[in-house]
Amino acid sequence: MSPTRRSTRRSLARRGVPRAAALALLLASVTACANDIPEADWSRGLLPDPITTQGDLVQSLWNGAWIAALATGGVVIGLIVWACIFHTKRRAKAELPPQVRYNLPIEMLYTLVPLVMVSVFFFFTARDSRDLEFVSGSPDVKVKVEAFQWSWRFTTTVGGKTLQPVVGQPVSDYTAGPQLVLPVGKKIEFELESPDVIHSFWVPDFLFKRDVIPGVPENNKGRVFEITTLDKPGVYAGRCAELCGVDHSRMLFNVKLVKQAEFDQYIATQAGSAQ
Ligand SMILES: [Cu+2]
After folding, report:
1. How far apart are the CA of 123 and the centre of ligand 1, in A?
2. Torsion angle, CA of 241/219/148/196, rounded to 10 degrees?
């Protein structure tokens, strides 16, 4: 090895130390910031454990799509490997292998197979989208969600009573953001509204997000969606999923799922401020 090369290598090694330290620091800070990322599980295809019945539907669509995609990939890679091993041009034979132009069975096959695959994907996606977008119109709790630069205002209506809105401000920890309290095992209808720019209402544990677009008319169904909460009490992170300005990343909130008795108590404490 030449002396120049050796010295370059030494200097790289010297520089490598601060680089490793910087990387460790970066990883540590990423982990520190990411306290709102729910635990993703390999057995669920890296999705968090859903807290709504609709989330279960998304999970099964996700699993099915991955199984279909992996099977398709397996067949394609298998065919490529098979062709590479058994159908390479032999050096001794100079002539062309048999040509398959205008071979009707093969052309039918590579037209029909993708068509069938896309149709199957389309069928399940359309069926599940319809179910995910279903709004019964008879929810137990109604929540008006107003997304603004850069936080949220939640106005809950339950049993004909509208509670005092919960208004937040930009925060760096979701537990410090505005809290939306909801009962378990109930139908909740959300209505989304934005006075400024496009935001996106996202609770990762719902396995669902919906853009909040300004100017959408009142009775447009794009503003509304419904979930049914599962019996999983806890505090779940929520955030804006659409880059909406300088404090977008601090547009954090949380959803607290509680048992019915605790929810009734919550409403009672809000009763004084009810309109
Ligand atoms: Cu936003």
Report:
1. 32
2. 100
Percentage of residues of the chain with pLDDT beyond 90: 69
Q: Are 220 and 228 in contact (CB under 8 A)?
A: no
Q: Calculate how far, in angstroms, residue 172's C-alpha sits from the geometric centre of ligand 1.
A: 14
For residues 40 and 48, is the Cβ–Cβ distance under 8 A?
yes
Instruction: Report the candidate in 203, 195, 156, 197 with the shortest Cα–Cα distance to residue 177.
Output: 203
Q: Write the Ramachandran bin of 137: left for phi over 0, alpha for psi from -120 to 50, otherwise beta.
A: left
Q: Tell me: the pLDDT tens digits for 23-52? A: 554 444 444 444 567 777 788 888 999 999
Q: Which residues make up the environment of ion ligand 1, defined by Cβ < 5 Å? A: 199, 240, 244, 251
Distance CA 75, CA 98 (A): 23
Q: How far is the CA of 195 from the centre of ligand 1 (A)?
A: 11
Tell me: the pLDDT tens digits for 152-177?
999 999 999 999 999 999 999 999 99
Tell me if 100 sits within 8 A of 109, measured CB to CB.
no
